[in-house]
Amino acid sequence: NGTAGFATLTSAQQDELLRAIEKTPFFQAVRFDTVVGAFALPTWGGNRDYAGWHLLGLEHQPRFEAPFGYYDADENRRG
User: How would DSSP label each residue in 27-77?
Assistant: First the structure.
């Protein structure tokens, strides 16, 4: 059928092909889905073992803890 797989192309040919399609709606959708999958919650089907978050230096926090400080010290003592 005259088509070759992407992996069989040279680096220069791969770059040329990607530049030719990077502004298409299809490529933009694939790029968006890739970014979302890399950083979404693993329960949503991506970011296995929080690998995407670890790339950014983030740790998973299962619950939110407010950044208490001097401005609310009195409130914290009231409990």
Answer: HHHHHHHHHHHHHS-GGGT-SGGGHHHHHTT----SS------GGGHHHHH
Q: What is the pLDDT of residues 57-79, one digit of tens each?
A: 888 777 766 666 666 666 555 55
Overall pTM > 0.70 = no
Measured CA to CA, the distance from residue 65 to residue 55 in angstroms comes to 22
Q: What is the largest CA-CA distance in the chain?
A: 75
> Closest by alpha carbon to 35, among 49, 46, 44, 22?
46
